[in-house]
Amino acid sequence: MEGTLSPQSLSQMRSEVRRKRANRDWLDSHRDELRAKYADKYVAVVDGAVIGDSDKFPSLLASLRKRLAPEDLLAAAIEFISKGELVWIL
């Protein structure tokens, strides 16, 4: 049937989502440490390790594209780590 994913494809997608979530969770749980070392920088995390940082997002992304396999780039959690905590007023 056209447009239907195989069980193997679904399993692969679930694995990729879990890996991305784990990288995001690691970044969130280590935010204070990251803020102390990478204040006001973009940081990329893969598999529980900082794999890159830069003052500019395009520079970080270009560096990661050169160094990482596509699946690792997709799994990376990339975020700007501000010097202070941001307060959102809605």
Structure description:
- With 90 residues, the chain is of the alpha+beta class.
- It has one domain (7-81).
- 53% of the residues lie in helices and 19% in strands.
- The chain is built from four helices and three strands.
- The protein has helices spanning 7-29, 31-38, 57-67, 70-75; strands at residues 41-46, 49-54, 77-81.
- The chain has a three-stranded antiparallel sheet, sandwiched between helices.
- The longest helix is centred in the N-terminal third of the chain and has 23 residues, at 7-29.
- The chain is globular, with a radius of gyration of 16 Å.
- The chain starts with 6 loop residues before the first helix and ends in a 9-residue tail after the last strand.
- 13% of the residues are buried.
Task: Give a quick summary of the entry.
The chain is an alpha+beta fold and about 90 residues long.
Shape: globular
- What can be said about the biggest beta sheet? 3 strands, antiparallel
Count of DSSP strands: 3
Give the strand order, joined by hyphens, for the main sheet.
2-1-3
pLDDT under 50 segments (min length 5)?
A: none
Q: Which structural class fits the helix and strand makeup?
A: alpha+beta
Helix content: 40-55%
Work out the count of structural domains: 1
The average pLDDT is 92
Strand content: 15-25%
Gyration radius, rounded: 16 Å
Distance between the termini: 46 Å
| SSE pattern, N- to C-terminal | HHEEHHE
Give me the oligomer status.
single chain
The count of helical stretches stands at 4
